[in-house]
Design goal:
Layout lengths: L26 H14 L15 H13 L11 H8 L2 H15 L1 H8 L4 H10 L4 H18 L5 H5 L1 H4 L33 H17 L8 H11 L2 E3 L2 E3 L1
Antiparallel strand pairs: 1-2
Helix pairs in contact: 3-4, 4-7, 6-7, 10-11
């Protein structure tokens, strides 16, 4: 089964568009096309030039959907049903499209009447040759068409679409990092003067005593001066020995 995903060369007898592949264009864009055709008239052929600058993928989806609904032939030429749709007003289109849908979506309608699920609906489109996102688009087109023309739609068709229409991956909420609080600038005065600790005072005192002792020109410093130095260094007299 050939599934047209991208635009190709204009059709030939050897490469016709498959009428069995379900349409997967946007239902809204299909209705817009009908309105445009009503204003401008039907072209002799829906060749590539008719769509102007539209992408090849969009052209393929549009022509494939029209072909599936039997609105154009294998050469992309309008069929009488399309002319009937274009000439009808909004209310007049519904019975025409319903008749076409009843002819093309037999299994899908039966599944809807059985209260089938969206997963079962996708399985029907996969059996008809579509896969992945294309099957989901075809299911969405059918659901919108059925609702528009008044065909039965299972409550589980629309219930399962939100969970199945994505890539299958669960997106976790993005946690935003809290902004750090601005630093509070505290104005302070000049740094306080260093506090003279007892150890510093003691060291300065010992240095002073040492310098005084060095001034004795090599002679033995007076006993009182030596005693002060020793006491400052933390020595105590114990008998005949000087011990730390």
């Amino acid at each position: 089964m050939t599934v047209e995903l991208y635009d190709r060369a204009e059709p030939t007898a050897a490469a016709p568009v498959s009428a069995k592949t379900p349409g997967y264009a946007s239902f809204t864009s299909t209705r817009t096309l009908l309105d445009t055709l009503r204003e401008s008239g039907l072209p002799a052929q829906f060749d590539r030039s008719y769509f102007g600058t539209a992408s090849g993928g969009l052209i393929a989806q549009t022509r494939g959907t029209l072909r599936f609904l039997d609105l154009i032939d294998d050469d992309y030429r309008p069929r009488p049903q399309l002319a009937e749709l274009v000439e009808a007003d909004e209310e007049g289109r519904r019975p025409i499209l319903r008749r076409l849908a009843e002819d093309r979506y037999v299994e899908e309608i039966k599944l809807a009447e059985q209260n089938g699920t969206y997963g079962q609906l996708l399985a029907v489109f996969r059996e008809r040759g579509l896969t992945g996102a294309t099957a989901q688009k075809a299911a969405t087109f059918y659901i919108h068409l059925a609702q528009y023309v008044g065909l039965p739609v299972s409550q589980y068709f629309t219930q399962g679409r939100a969970a199945s229409s994505g890539s299958g991956a669960t997106r976790r909420p993005v946690r935003r990092r809290a902004r750090p609080a601005p630093l509070e600038v505290v104005e302070t005065g000049p740094p306080p003067a260093p506090v003279e600790t007892l150890d510093k005072k003691r060291s300065a005192y010992i240095d002073l005593l040492m310098r005084l002792a060095d001034r004795q020109d090599g002679e033995l410093p007076p006993a009182e001066l030596l005693d002060r130095i020793e006491r400052a260094l933390g020595y105590e007299e114990k008998g005949d020995q000087i011990s730390p």
